[in-house]
């Protein structure tokens, strides 16, 4: 007797007609034709069952604050930073918690059950850290939330940041962050990387740095990040987020850089939605789109996971909490349109990001946590194309969110009575 049995599911790896049996919050069996009873049975009807979506790069302290204290008129990164600097002194713990938990409601509805959020520690009050540490406890039953101590105004550039970052880590923030390209000089940026990696090594923590979020091809802090990762023995525990300068770098230099990143087992976290909006602002035409070299990083064996970054905040007036929107934008911007490409992009919002976050028990294998999403799509490529309804969102074997199928009724002579977007999947393998 199982607690939950999902019948006739298609898995992201292409297996179909699969039954998934759940007991005590974990996957107890996964096979075709499981002959058993369960307290609850869900017929997937051949649709895609995925592990939950994972966002490895977000700013939950700023989310849903669009228009406070005013709108970002230019739409630029720098005006967004200036706006956040105006808003930050007025932040209250209560308002931060309310906005963050409300965003988590939206995340659950999209099947997003793990988030890594950067927490600005430039304000020595650390109201952001206090609030999000409480949020982490509130949402723990349904979202795995990791927190990064992020010195938004620069580790050295902001006089209070060094002490505040250390205090935030003492309070229980999980990960060491940084923003070397925002320091006053390239030398200060490199020095900040070394100092922050040393802190992580001494404390046994992971590192996730905003790195080279600029169009300047000479912003090469990711090289330093890779080298310091190796020097401190942090391989596999360090992520470079954004990395947008790489799209403008000289190809010969990149031919040296990517192998160094691979040697360091550096993780890469592009943020396709936000960077296609913010980058290339000094260009006329041709206008750069600001993405790092996603296909090349994947080909070199780096783990690449996509982040949402922002939703309705000073930097980005869009966003829905849907990681499939992120994969959809990445597909177009990178021209990764083959079936294998689509599967790789789907992995970038699921299993790759879970690996970057070091999530225990993640996946669709016996023994894994019974965390799953039933999508109104038939394979990963179709999921990216359609960004379909999440019919069931399951956490530890219990349905925590449901959305009705998208079906349109037609009244056309001689035509079908209804249209289901999932029925338009190509007959050949995607």
Automatic annotation (TrEMBL):
<keyword id="KW-0378">Hydrolase</keyword>
<keyword id="KW-0479">Metal-binding</keyword>
<dbReference type="GO" id="GO:0046872">
    <property type="term" value="F:metal ion binding"/>
</dbReference>
<dbReference type="GO" id="GO:0035888">
    <property type="term" value="F:isoguanine deaminase activity"/>
</dbReference>
<dbReference type="GO" id="GO:0004131">
    <property type="term" value="F:cytosine deaminase activity"/>
</dbReference>
<dbReference type="InterPro" id="IPR013108">
    <property type="entry name" value="Amidohydro_3"/>
</dbReference>
<dbReference type="GO" id="GO:0006209">
    <property type="term" value="P:cytosine catabolic process"/>
</dbReference>
<dbReference type="InterPro" id="IPR032466">
    <property type="entry name" value="Metal_Hydrolase"/>
</dbReference>
<dbReference type="Pfam" id="PF07969">
    <property type="entry name" value="Amidohydro_3"/>
</dbReference>
<feature type="domain" description="Amidohydrolase 3">
    <location>
        <begin position="40"/>
        <end position="400"/>
    </location>
</feature>
<feature type="region of interest" description="Disordered">
    <location>
        <begin position="411"/>
        <end position="430"/>
    </location>
</feature>
<protein>
    <submittedName>
        <fullName>Amidohydrolase family protein</fullName>
    </submittedName>
</protein>
<dbReference type="InterPro" id="IPR011059">
    <property type="entry name" value="Metal-dep_hydrolase_composite"/>
</dbReference>
<dbReference type="InterPro" id="IPR052349">
    <property type="entry name" value="Metallo-hydrolase_Enzymes"/>
</dbReference>
